[in-house]
Design brief:
The chain has 307 residues and is an alpha/beta fold. It has helices spanning 2-9, 13-21, 25-29, 38-50, 67-84, 109-126, 141-154, 169-176, 201-217, 229-241, 259-267, 283-292, 294-305, and strands at 54-59, 93-97, 131-133, 159-163, 182-186, 221-225, 250-254, 272-278. It is built from 13 helices and eight strands. Strands 1-2-3-4-5-6-7-8 form an eight-stranded parallel barrel, surrounded by seven helices. The protein is globular, with a radius of gyration of 18 Å. The protein binds dihydroflavine-adenine dinucleotide. Residues 134-135, 161, 163, 186-190, 225-228, 252-254, 257-258, 275, 289, 292-293, 296 line the site of dihydroflavine-adenine dinucleotide (FDA). Dihydroflavine-adenine dinucleotide is lined by residues 134-135, 161, 163, 186-190, 225-228, 252-254, 257-258, 275, 289, 292-293, 296.
Length: 307
């Protein structure tokens, strides 16, 4: 019940100001967002990749309001790519981007977001890695998929995310499950209306399995974005039945969630990619992590009270 309330708060400027200013917030935020600057994050990239993990990097931020902020987002990714280039990690470290941060919701936002994301995709390709377009709320997805298709003309390895909770997703999965495509399947983290999305956990989980089957049986490269132990076992079984080798799909989880499982899957020989977010504009990302698990909120509330 708490989840939808927290998700509503994630879009409130008043709550953003309140929570961002709370003195104890940072120590709780650090669990999910382990740095604010490139200088903070490069050592973490080195540490995690040395443990056999792969990464997808997110410079946090979304819902920007000016074209200058969109250019700044592009530049932040370009700086990150420049800083990790000498590490020579290739596609062990890819980028995840939210198009809203690249200007998608501004005037002429579709073109602006495409113009801002393209140099990031080019820079990533130049160091042997890729970019995946995150999926945001359902109103943004037609534009996201069109940008994805456009980018794939020159950079076919560009990935995208699909969300099991949306009714449209089975059809999207069928369209995307073609040779060379990279598709991350997640349950979905936004507050969506019943006209477009399943609302109950068991319905979302069932939809996840249906879509996963389409991806596993298809020709593309499935990226299983979930911490759910049941879905992870089902994914392994579906991969086995589809005759996929260990390097023909990968698991992805968020930094700070089930860290031991990251290492366990990597030790079993799976490709395990950790979605690692950093930056100062962490509010929206952090609130979605609270909404996913009410126990996080209790922990957060306790730390506020005990100070
Ligand atoms: P579920 O929520 O059922 O959780 C399963 C178990 O995982 C829980 O019981 C708990 O143990 C643990 N867990 C999950 N979330 C937790 C949390 N916040 N704190 C502590 N423990 C937690 N969404 C989206 O809409 N667009 C996107 O682009 C992305 N991108 C993305 C990338 C990657 C790599 C991942 C893993 C997830 C996303 N998501 C996302 C988020 C996704 O939609 C979803 O909200 C979360 O992954 C939680 O769903 P689970 O599949 O983990 O299952």
């Amino acid at each position: 019940m708490l989840g939808p309330v927290i998700l509503a708060a994630s879009r409130s400027d008043r709550m953003r100001r309140l929570i961002s200013a709370a003195p104890v917030t940072k120590q709780v935020v650090d669990r999910f967002i382990p740095g604010e600057t490139v200088d903070d994050i490069v050592p973490i990239v080195e540490e995690l990749t040395a443990k056999g993990l792969e990464l997808t990097m997110d410079v946090v931020g979304e819902d920007i309001t000016t074209p200058e902020q969109a250019s700044a987002a592009r530049d932040a990714y370009l700086e990150l790519i420049e800083r990790i280039a000498p590490l020579g990690l290739g596609d062990k470290v890819e980028m995840s981007v939210k198009l809203s941060m690249f200007g998608q919701a501004l005037d002429d936002g579709h073109e602006l977001a495409l113009a801002n994301v393209r140099p990031v995709v080019e820079a990533a390709a130049a160091i042997g890695t890729t970019v995946t377009l995150d999926a945001e709320d359902h109103t943004t997805l037609d534009s996201m998929f069109a940008i994805h298709e456009e980018l794939r003309k020159d950079f076919p390895q560009t990935g995208c995310v699909i969300q099991a909770y949306l009714f449209r997703t089975e059809a999207d999965a069928r369209r995307l499950a073609e040779a060379g495509s990279r598709v991350r399947l997640v349950k979905g983290a936004y507050k969506e209306p019943a006209q477009v999305a399943y609302q109950q956990k068991h319905e979302i989980d069932k939809a996840y399995v249906r879509v996963l089957r389409i991806l596993m049986e298809g020709e593309g490269y499935p990226m299983i974005g979930s911490h759910d132990p049941r879905l992870i076992s089902i994914a392994q079984e579906l991969a086995r039945r589809a005759g996929r080798k260990l390097d023909e799909y990968e698991f992805q989880m968020l930094y700070g969630i089930r860290g031991e499982e990251h290492l366990r899957l990597a030790a079993e020989g799976h490709r395990m990619r950790v979605y690692t977010a950093y930056g100062t504009d962490w509010y929206g990302y952090f609130m979605r992590r609270l909404a996913e698990k009410p126990a996080n909120l209790r922990f957060f509330a306790r730390s506020m009270v005990s100070k």
